[in-house]
Design brief:
- The model has no long low-confidence stretch (mean pLDDT 92).
- By secondary structure, this protein is an alpha/beta fold.
- The protein has eleven helices and 13 strands.
Length: 294
């Protein structure tokens, strides 16, 4: 049995069943929906689909990262159990949670001098972050040591490719990511922005595509352009969404382009932390590919 645990934040947008299956651990972000504070615990206590319904009804949402104290409370039982910790955080291009985790690890160093906590910035988000954790779990299960796994994650994390689109700009306008004027024009023209996560882990608009049908086709074209081995890709594919019908359409389009992947694509919900900012109508596609350089 490994003498370390592999840990992440709930914003990796896997499921509790998948987390348990892969022997991963996670700490929950906090989400405000209207006047209620909720835990993003992958739907255990609060479903992201309830949040999306409330957002559609006009309620505001905001998130708060895991505090230093929450990280310390989360890490301590593993240290007490004699385990070292590799904790991978949501991208620093999106959140400040990496700094909180580092401060918590530093605060615990004197208390547990014989234990090791290494904090890694994933430079990833949603189920792309989840895909990185899944691949790291594969390496752990193959017997990779603590130090070698830390190095592998650092070396490989930019090979996790993220593409996503949104069909409703309402929440980008609310969050200030799109100006009100540009957003209104975009809505009128049925613009579905296509974005990725760049080499610094930031959400980056790449193309403006008109209509859902065209953006679904385009996101799969981007996969062919950027996946390992192009159209011959045979690695893992994760999809996360806040619209089940659109997510299924993307899955089918991927399977049409890559027949050998049929039945192998994993689907997850976009959880409360990421979904509070992107809202309903978002689909994200993740796979292994050429290292991100821009």
């Amino acid at each position: 049995m490994e003498d370390y645990i592999l840990s992440c934040c709930s914003s990796c947008d896997l499921s509790n069943e998948w987390i348990e299956k892969r022997n991963l651990h996670y700490v929950s972000f906090n989400v405000m929906v209207g006047n209620e504070q909720k835990k993003d615990d992958m739907g255990k206590s609060f479903s992201p689909w309830e949040m999306y319904e409330r957002m559609a009804a006009g309620e505001d949402t905001k998130t708060s990262m895991v505090s230093i104290g929450e990280y310390m409370d989360y890490f301590r039982p593993f240290l007490e159990d004699g385990k070292d910790i590799i904790h991978v955080t949501l991208s620093t291009g999106i959140s400040g949670t990496y700094n909180s985790a580092c401060q918590a690890a530093d605060a615990l160093a004197d208390e547990y001098p014989h234990r090791q906590i290494t904090i890694i910035d994933s430079l990833a988000a949603s189920s792309g972050y989840g895909l990185l954790m899944d691949l790291a779990a594969d390496k752990r299960d193959e017997g990779m040591s603590f130090d070698n796994l830390v190095q592998w994650i650092e070396n490989y994390k930019l090979n996790i490719i993220h593409w996503f689109f949104s069909t409703d700009l309402t929440y980008y306008i609310k969050g200030g990511r799109v100006s009100k004027a540009a957003g209104m024009v975009g809505q009128m023209l049925n613009i579905c922005p296509l974005l990725d996560v760049d080499y610094q882990g930031r959400l980056t608009p790449r193309e403006k595509v008109r209509t859902k049908k065209k953006v679904i086709k385009r996101i799969v074209e981007k996969m062919v352009e950027t996946a390992d081995y192009g159209i011959d890709y045979f690695g893992k594919v994760f999809i996360s969404d806040s619209d089940k019908e659109l997510g299924l359409e993307v899955q089918r389009e991927v399977e049409r382009a890559y027949p050998r992947l049929k039945g192998k694509i994993q689907r997850f919900d976009i959880g409360c932390t990421i979904g509070a900012h992107t809202g309903p109508g978002t689909v994200a596609l993740f796979f292994q590919g050429q290292k991100r350089y821009n």
